[in-house]
Amino acid sequence: MAVAYGLNPEGGTRNYSFSTRDSHSALYEGVFMRRGRLQPWTTFFLRAESFYNVATEAEACSLFPGTSGVKYRNPATGRRAYLHEMSHGEAFLGFIQDSSKENGLYFLDEPEAALSPSRQLTLLYEMDQLARHGSQLIVATHSPILLGLPSAQIVSFDGGELRRVAYEETESYQITELFINNRERILHELLDSRV
Question: What is the pTM of this model?
Answer without folding.
Answer: 0.80
